[in-house]
Specification:
By secondary structure, the protein is α/β, with parallel strands linked by helices. About 50% of the residues lie in helices and about 15% in strands. The structure holds NADP nicotinamide-adenine-dinucleotide phosphate.
Length: about 280
């Protein structure tokens, strides 16, 4: 079975490289720019295609690994190809978006599924070593997809299309908002003269230890700090020291943290619920 890609970006290139490593045959790549095509083909030792027809014709499965907003456009381009029915008849198409359902591929009127790696790809660097413990989530698999997945050596999750919004929300909170939280913490250290790199290094063992605690104890028992202890004075001093925007985030997170605690201190609840206008 030959697998080709439309969209030679971060995910298409990295996933193609993983597939090659796992002994899968990669036909090649078609993309918007020649530069991206050449880069992906060099990494995967596959064929550069200059047209959509060519990559589809030469592949049994085709991954549409363009930006989410572009998937519909690519599908429309495929369905407007002359003799597209004949071209796509025995082909299987998939995309790799966590937010978009497989429905976007339905106009192709052939076998379709979606695959979403629970992993962040901030750059073109192929993170082959990072794939080892990754979960890949499949939507709408048929029997041949189900029997192919174990060959990738990844952890697999299966979800319904109707569950995709909640699923992707979880992925965004765990990955993107962790970056936002780290930025918040690093900013506070930078404010007192600790440069960003040193700040991150100092915070990293704390974060890793916390993740280990969550793994060992679950979220409710892993929570420590002034909110659990009921140290109202400490939380008050944090709020007084924060600028308005991070203060709002601190309060919001504090209120969510209260939900993890069985008996919250009423003064703490009040402190985290009131806004600055009420305090004056
Ligand atoms: N990045 C992540 O962390 C991540 C994680 C999990 C899943 N995903 C999913 O993976 C998919 C790809 O994301 P990505 O981060 O790899 O995006 P990306 O790096 O921006 O790559 C998208 C690629 O598609 C090409 N492209 C765009 N429109 C096209 C069109 N009309 N025809 C042909 N090629 C086109 C781009 O063109 P050029 O040829 O101009 O480069 C680019 O190479 C998305 O569905 C995304 O949701 C991303």
């Amino acid at each position: 079975m030959r697998i080709g890609f439309i969209g030679a970006g971060k995910v298409g290139t990295s996933f193609g490289a993983l597939l090659k490593l796992k002994g899968q045959e990669i036909s090649g790549y078609y993309s918007r720019s020649q530069k991206s095509i050449e880069h992906a083909c060099e990494i995967t030792g596959s064929t550069p295609y200059s047209t959509l027809e060519a990559v589809i014709k030469d592949s049994d499965w085709i991954g549409i690994t363009v930006q989410d907003d572009q998937i519909e456009q690519v599908v429309a381009e495929i369905t407007s190809l002359p003799q597209y029915r004949q071209l796509c008849q025995s082909k299987t198409f998939f995309h790799m978006s966590g937010a978009t359902t497989v429905d976007v591929l339905k106009p192709l009127k052939t076998d379709i599924f979606s695959l979403h790696p629970l992993m962040a790809f901030p750059s073109y660097k192929t993170q082959l070593e990072d794939w080892s413990n990754t979960f890949i989530t499949v939507e709408n698999p048929n029997t041949s997809v189900r029997s192919w997945l174990p060959k990738l050596g990844l952890n697999t999750l299966e979800i319904e299309s109707s569950q995709k919004v909640k699923y992707h929300t979880a992925a965004v909170v765990a990955s993107n908002y962790l970056v936002t939280l780290m930025d918040f913490a690093i900013n506070e250290l930078e404010f007192i003269g600790i440069d960003r790199e040193s700040g991150f290094k100092a915070l990293l063992p704390l974060v890793e230890g916390t993740l280990n605690n969550i793994q060992a104890l679950g979220t409710k028992k892993a929570i420590t700090g002034p909110i659990v202890r009921g140290d109202v004075k400490t939380v008050k001093s944090h709020l007084e020291a924060l600028e308005p925007e991070p203060k709002e985030l601190y309060r919001l997170l504090g209120r969510h943290t209260l939900q993890l605690i069985s008996e919250a201190n009423p003064m703490m609840v009040h402190l985290l619920e009131e806004d600055d206008a009420c305090q004056k």
